[in-house]
Each structure stands twice: as C-alpha cells, then as structure tokens.
Amino acid sequence: MEPQPIPDGRGGVNNSMENIDALQAIERGEKQDQETLLRLKDEALVDLTDVTHMQSSGREFIFLGFTPKGLRLLKESKLSLLSDLEKEITRTVVRTFLDERGEQYISQ
Questions:
Q1: What predicted TM-score, i.e. pTM, was given to this entire model?
Q2: What is the pLDDT of residues 59-107, one digit of tens each?
Q3: Residues in CB range of 44: below 8 A, 6 or more apart
Q4: Which domain covers residue 96, as residue numbers?
Q5: Of 7-16, 26-35, 73-82, which one has max mean pLDDT?
Q6: Which residues contact 22 (CB under 8 A, 6 or more apart)?
Q7: How many structural domains are present in the chain?
Q8: How many CA atoms lie within 13 A of 74 on its CB side?
Q9: Of 51, 57, 70, 75, which has the maximum CB count within 10 A?
Q10: Angle in degrees, CA 6, 12, 17, rounded to 5
Q11: Per residue in 65-95, is it b (16+ CB within 10 Å) or e — as a string?
Q12: Is 38 contained in some domain?
C-alpha cells in the first residue's frame, strides 16, 4: 500500500520528506523518474530542461540544477538532528572544555 500524503494545513499536501529524499538522491547522482522531477520543479526546488524527442513516449525532462530554494532545503536536511536539550548539553561541555583549556594557557 502506498503512503498517503499528509495535509499541510493550507489545503495542500506536504511532500517535504519525499522532496528531501529525492533531492538527496539527485545530489548522490541517482536518476529520478519524470513524475518526481516534475514534482520538484513544481515546488521550485530544481531546474529542468525539456529533452523530448521523436522517440520519446511523452514529455521528457532532465535535471539541470538546484534552485536556491532547493539548495536551502537540501542544506537544512543535513543539519544536526539533536534535540534542544542535547544541543544545550553539547554547548555546556564545549564551553567547559574551552574554559579549562583557556586557564591552562593563561597559567603557562
């Protein structure tokens, strides 16, 4: 059974995880199907070019590049998955480490 789209609260559908997965796959050099490419184009995440020719069974597009919006989404998808508590703990540990190191250099 195919996963059902999630309403986005604006009367549309939230395909953000599918879009992120597809953008990451393109970044890895994996070829995407036409439906996926067109969905990404409709979301203004990629630029495409029409390469339809006489032997094409329909319209055919290839990936040209990421749009600024697509690059931003790709970058955001790579951000740390730490919770706020984990981020605060990490900051505290790093701050303590740097404070201790700073005292060592000052005392030398």
A1: 0.59
A2: 999 999 999 999 999 888 877 566 778 778 888 888 888 887 765 555 4
A3: 67, 69, 70
A4: 82-108
A5: 26-35
A6: 32, 36, 39, 40
A7: 2
A8: 18
A9: 70
A10: 45
A11: ebbeebeebbeebeeeeeeeeeeeeeeeeee
A12: yes
